[in-house]
Amino acid sequence: MQIKAFWRDVRFLQMLAQAGFVVLLALAAAYLYVNVSANLQRQGLTVGYGFMKNPASFDIGESFIPYKASDTYRHALLVGLVNTLVVSVTGILLTTVVGVLAGVARLSSNWLINKLAAAYVGLIRNTPLIIQLMFWYFGVIIRLPSVKQAIALPGPAYLTNRGVYVPWAEATPAFPAWQVYILMAVISVLITWFGLRSAYRRTSLPLSPWWNLSYLFIPFLILWLGAALQPEPPLRAFVPELAGLNFKGGLRMTPEFAALLFGLVLYTGAFIAEIVRAGILAVSRGQVEAARSLGFRNSQTLRLIVFPQALRVIIPPLTSQYLNLAKNSSLAIAIGYPDLFSIAGTVFNQTGAAIEIIMVLMLSYLSMSLLTSLIMNIYNSRMRLVER
Amino acid sequence: MAAIEMQPPRLSIGPLAWFRKNLFSTWYNAGLTFATLWVLYSVLKPALFWALTEAKWGVIGANLTLFMVGQYPRGELWRIWLVIYLLAGLIGLSWGVWKNAARGFAVIALSAGGAFALIGLILRWEVWANWLIAEAVLLALFLPGRSLRHAALAATAGWILFFPALFLLVAGHHSLPVLPPVEMSAWSGLLLTLMLTIVGNFGSLPLGILLALGRRSKLPIVRYFCIGYIELIRGVPLVTILYMADILLPLFLPLEVVRPDRVLRAMVGFILFEAAYQAENVRGGLQSIQRGQYEAAQALGLNGALTTALIILPQALRAVIPALFNSFISLFKDTTLVAIIGLFDLLRISRSVIAQPEWLGTHREVFLFAFLIYWGFNLAFSYGNRRVEQALGVGKR
Fold first, then answer.
1. How far apart are alpha carbons B243 and B239 in whole angstroms?
2. CB count, 10 Å around CB of B368?
3. Residue A215: pLDDT above 60?
């Protein structure tokens, strides 16, 4: 057998091609590096994160962690990150509800509800989010009546131009004592879970479903004992009520937060509605017919046959919608909600540290994205079709 | 044997039966219908009252040119009209050539043009006159498209040449006395929105194809580089990329190069961003090609590059046409983000219109108008998507 010349060997050629690619990349990187350092030198800038320790000396409209203007830039950016996280997590929870409702409504046999959901999805999906946000903020929320003539919704929730007031729960002085009982109750649930699972593993026979009641019963017992020791309840209803010129009590959402949350939830909900609809339609009719012929009731068919199979189709695109919502929260800058992007913009304007700020931004959003994908992937692998 | 008398099936037609079946089939459906009607009434009544009595729709008419072309020199507006005539002519020609496949586009273009001409009647004569000319051009080119022998070739060439012509007309060139250059910073309004969409979409396609091929490459270094790029870009918000393009691009260029215009920087940002998404679209198409195609190409003696260029890519690209249209729609919406980095696209122009002293507080009117423009364009795009899919037989052949 003749030995091939090495320049005809595929492995050698592949290695050569990769080496060439690396050299090309290195050259491009070196070229950019030279340009950047020349440009920075001319502008008299240096790269480094030293500025992060300097006082920020600007105010932030709202923050969920304590902040004052004399705090550092690093702390200001942290405030922005927390603001972004709060609006993203709340948005993801609410948009799931809106999206599932609208998706089911799209499949309703009721003509009015079906068409209404179709109109909602068609209008919202085909227009830019930022225009919707601006419309909700400048066109609706800012123009709401003043506190005196607030629009009252059942709840009671109040819509005013100073923000949206909703009922909330407030910790009573007894709350610290209750924390122990609540923690114990949670731990008891975990212990029950492990206990039942190992019992199942030992016998390898399905336990009677009545055992599941212990999930309810044990924590209830602990909390009941707690109530006997500590008669005052841990939380009390915290309802907004008019007191003088403003509302007292309840949870106040600023107009910016309310508009951003509302816009994000409506926008992403329209996309989720289509995903949910497609997921439910993807379950073949035969499955429903088989369930019927096995004697399942309507509700059982939905709960045990259709939804578990639809979820498999729904979860991967749902994940990317959650990621989109988190990324889209960066549009908050258009309506003045101080999220990470908007605070990073302010910090850049004050310090001129372009490269550093963009690195911070990219790393924050990337780690948020990766974390969400990770959680959803774990969930997805639990729901996945297990084939023999 | 006596015939069995059977009742005819109950008639289930007529409005009452329809109402029964679709709105009041069960007690909870009836309840839902009434609840929905009540909510609709309580929302729509004040909204309609506002739209018909309080709203100052005059703000739209008074600023229409501003919305459409922004700061584009008023003396050079004829170039934009010429672009519209060209487009109308091409649509007419395609209608004649490809009949059914292009008829939908032609009908949309004709009715949109007619609607604009009607709106123009209450505004200014040049608006309706120009739209009528565009309609006439469209209809006039229908017949040659039908009868001429090389019309198909002409139409294809026309569409390919349309994009360079569009840029030449809009941007101008200093060597052409008829077309003095118009600075990119003067492109604004809907014109800028559309230019950004076109550049972002078509400009990112080559890079996207390369990234998709790279992601499926057998060479690990190339593959991991492409995966890294795609996932990095898809993990961060577009506005961060635009911001980066706006601030960092001048830093990355050598000292002697003049700072690129902000519009150009935004275009680079869009291309870099959209390429990652296009790559994922194209990858979907590449994955749909069966092994047999590669093997057949190998059996015919084609090498790797030729297989990709002649066998794989044409099929993959056809399979991803719906996805590419979807990207087009979402990029069209995403162009609004340039308002955040300070370019005067349709959205930013809208905000500056609201800031005019005589139109203070017209947020609702102006944003609804912008909303309708984006919605209308996207309806047309998705209609076009469906027609092209049908014509190409995507998913059927």
1. 6
2. 18
3. yes
Pick from A39, A130, A328: which is nearest to B255 by CB? A39
Note whether B3 contacts A: Cβ–Cβ < 8 A: no
Please tell me the distance in Å from B337's CA to the nearest CA on chain A. Answer: 7
The answer to whether B371 faces chain A, any CB pair under 8 Å, is yes
- Determine contact: B339 vs chain A, CB below 8 A: yes
Beta-carbon separation of B252 and A32 below 8 A: yes
DSSP for residue B178: S
B30 touches chain A (CB under 8 A): no
- Decide which of A62 and B222 is more confident: B222
Is B225 in the A-facing interface, judged by CB distances under 8 Å? yes
Which of A23, A109, A110 best tests the B interface by mutation, with the highest count of B CBs <10 A? A110
What gap in Å lies between CA B148 and CA A293, rounded to an integer?
Answer: 63
And the tokens for A198? 């190992």
| Cβ contacts of B363 on chain A, cutoff 8 Å | 134-135, 138-139
Strand partners, A169: A237
Closest partner residue to A110 (CB to CB) among B23, B363, B364 is B23
- pLDDT value of position B209: 94
Distance between B240 CA and the closest CA of chain A, angstroms = 7
Q: Do A348 and B37 touch (CB under 8 A)?
A: no
**Chain A residues inside the 8 Å CB shell of B347:** 128, 130-131, 134
Cβ neighbours, 10 Å, residue A228: 8
Q: What is the pLDDT along chain B (397 residues), one digit of tens a residue?
A: 556 677 766 656 677 777 777 777 777 888 888 888 998 998 899 889 988 888 888 888 888 888 888 888 888 888 888 999 998 888 888 888 887 777 777 888 888 888 888 877 777 777 888 888 888 888 888 888 888 888 888 888 988 898 888 888 888 888 888 888 888 888 889 999 999 999 999 999 999 999 999 998 888 999 999 999 998 998 899 999 999 999 888 888 887 777 888 899 999 999 999 999 999 999 988 888 888 999 999 999 998 889 999 999 988 888 888 888 888 888 999 999 999 888 999 999 998 998 888 888 888 889 999 999 999 888 888 887 787 777 776 555 4
Looking at residue B296, its pLDDT comes to: 93
Write b or e for each residue in B293-306: b if 16 or more Cβ atoms lie within 10 A of its Cβ, otherwise e: ebeebeeeebeeee
Smallest CA–CA distance, residue B357 to chain A, in Å, is 17
Sheet holding A151-153, edge to edge: A151-153, A157-160, A163-166, A251-253
Query: Regarding beta strands A235-238 and A163-166, do their DSSP bridges make them parallel or antiparallel, or are they unpaired?
Result: unpaired
Residue B188 backbone dihedrals phi, psi, to 5 degrees? -155, 180
Place of tokens 């046999």: A109
What count of CB pairs under 8 Å joins A to B?
150
Residue pLDDT, tens place only, A317-357: 888 899 899 999 999 998 989 999 999 999 988 888 888 89
Unique residue bearing structure tokens 């949870």: A251
Provide mean pLDDT across the span A176-192: 84
